C-alpha cells in the first residue's frame, strides 16, 4: 500500500502506456518524453513495487506475471484519478454540486423562489436544499457551519456574523376585517393606537418578541397579551379567530392577507429591521454559494 502511495501519476501512466504499446520507443512517443526518461520512470516504478514488471527483448516488451497482476490495478487507479479531477472541475465549473441555505420562512416564501428560479436556470444540475426555520435557528445553522449563508434580520453584535443588507422591513398590525380598528385606521397606525388592545404575540424567547418588547419598553407600554406562539403563521390563525391582533414584519403581510386578514402599516421609526444575508467570517464559501449570492447582490424592494 505504501508503495502505491509513493507512485507518481507520471510513473503510473508510463507503466500503462508501455504495457499497452509493448514497445518503449512507441510509448515514449505517445508520452512525448525521451526513451531514457521513460526507462528511468519504469525502473523507479519497479523499485517502488519491489520487482520487475516487464520482460525486455531486443524487439518487444511484455509483462511479467507480476506486471499482469498490476496492470488492472494501475488502470483502476488511473481512471479514479481522472474521475476525481473531472468531478472537482465540474464542481468549480458549477456543473454539479449542491446549494444549502437557511432562511426565515417569511423571506423564503416571498423572495427565495424567484432567486432560486434564476439560479436554477443558470445551473440546472446543482441540487438545492432550503432550511426554512425561525431566525434563531438560521443564525445557529450559519454559526455552526451547517450552512454557508442564511437570510435573516440583522443579527446582534454578539452573534459575530457578517451581514449584507438587502432592504429594510417595516412592521404591520394584523387584525380581523371586522375589528373596530379596521375601519378607523386605513393607511397607518401607531403603537399608542393599539396599546389597549388584546394581543397575540411570539413566545418570549423569540428574536422577534425581544425586539418588539424593546420598542414597547421605549414607549413605556405594557401590552395586553392574550396568547403566545412560536410561529408567525399561528399568530395569523389566532387573529383569524378574533382572539386578538398581532404585530408582525411586513414580510409576513402576504401570508396574513391570504388568510383574509387586514394588515395596516405601523408608523413607528423604531419598528424597522434590516433584512439581509448572514454568513460567518471564519468559513470559506464554496463557488456554488458564491455564484448564488452574486445573483442577489442588488437590493430588493418591498
Structure description:
This protein is α/β, with parallel strands linked by helices. The protein has three domains: 2-92, Winged helix-like DNA-binding domain superfamily/Winged helix DNA-binding domain (Arc Repressor Mutant, subunit A, Orthogonal Bundle), CATH 1.10.10; 98-166 and 275-295, D-Maltodextrin-Binding Protein, domain 2 (3-Layer(aba) Sandwich); 167-274, D-Maltodextrin-Binding Protein, domain 2 (3-Layer(aba) Sandwich). The protein is built from 14 helices and twelve strands. It has helices at 2-6, 9-21, 24-31, 35-49, 65-92, 105-110, 112-122, 135-143, 180-184, 191-194, 207-218, 232-240, 253-258, 287-295; strands at residues 54-56, 61-63, 98-103, 127-132, 150-153, 162-175, 188-189, 198-202, 224-229, 246-249, 262-266, 272-279. Strands 3, 4, 5, 6, 7, 10, 11 and 12 form an eight-stranded mixed sheet that branches. A two-stranded antiparallel sheet has the order 1-2. β1 and β2 (61-63) form a beta hairpin. It starts with a helix and ends in a 7-residue tail after the last helix. The model has no long low-confidence stretch (mean pLDDT 88).
Amino acid at each position: 500500500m505504501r508503495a502505491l502511495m509513493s507512485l507518481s501519476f507520471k510513473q503510473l501512466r508510463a507503466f500503462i502506456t508501455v504495457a499497452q504499446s509493448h514497445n518503449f520507443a512507441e510509448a515514449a512517443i505517445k508520452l512525448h518524453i525521451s526513451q531514457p526518461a521513460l526507462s528511468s520512470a519504469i525502473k523507479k516504478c519497479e523499485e517502488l513495487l519491489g520487482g520487475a514488471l516487464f520482460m525486455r527483448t531486443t524487439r518487444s516488451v511484455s509483462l511479467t506475471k507480476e506486471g499482469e497482476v498490476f496492470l488492472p490495478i494501475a488502470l483502476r487507479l488511473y481512471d479514479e484519478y481522472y474521475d476525481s479531477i473531472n468531478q472537482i472541475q465540474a464542481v468549480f465549473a458549477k456543473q454539479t454540486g449542491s446549494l444549502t441555505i437557511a432562511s426565515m420562512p417569511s423571506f423564503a416564501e416571498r423572495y427565495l423562489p424567484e432567486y432560486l428560479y434564476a439560479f436554477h436556470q443558470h445551473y440546472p444540475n446543482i441540487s438545492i436544499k432550503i432550511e426554512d426555520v425561525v431566525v434563531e435557528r438560521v443564525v445557529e445553522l450559519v454559526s455552526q457551519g451547517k450552512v454557508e449563508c442564511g437570510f435573516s434580520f440583522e443579527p446582534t453584535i454578539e452573534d459575530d456574523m457578517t451581514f449584507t443588507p438587502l432592504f429594510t422591513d417595516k412592521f404591520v398590525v394584523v387584525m380581523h376585517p371586522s375589528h373596530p380598528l379596521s375601519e378607523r385606521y386605513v393607511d397607518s397606525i401607531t403603537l399608542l393606537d393599539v396599546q389597549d388592545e388584546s394581543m397575540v404575540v411570539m413566545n418570549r424567547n423569540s428574536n422577534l418578541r425581544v425586539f418588539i418588547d424593546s420598542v414597547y419598553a421605549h414607549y413605556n407600554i405594557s401590552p395586553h397579551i392574550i396568547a403566545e406562539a412560536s410561529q408567525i403563521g399561528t399568530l395569523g390563525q389566532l387573529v383569524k379567530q378574533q382572539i386578538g391582533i398581532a404585530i408582525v414584519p411586513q414580510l409576513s403581510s402576504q401570508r396574513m392577507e391570504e388568510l383574509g386578514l387586514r394588515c395596516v402599516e405601523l408608523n413607528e421609526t423604531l419598528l424597522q429591521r434590516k433584512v439581509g444575508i448572514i454568513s460567518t467570517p471564519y468559513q470559506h464559501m464554496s463557488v456554488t454559494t458564491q455564484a448564488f449570492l452574486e445573483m442577489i447582490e442588488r437590493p430588493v424592494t418591498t
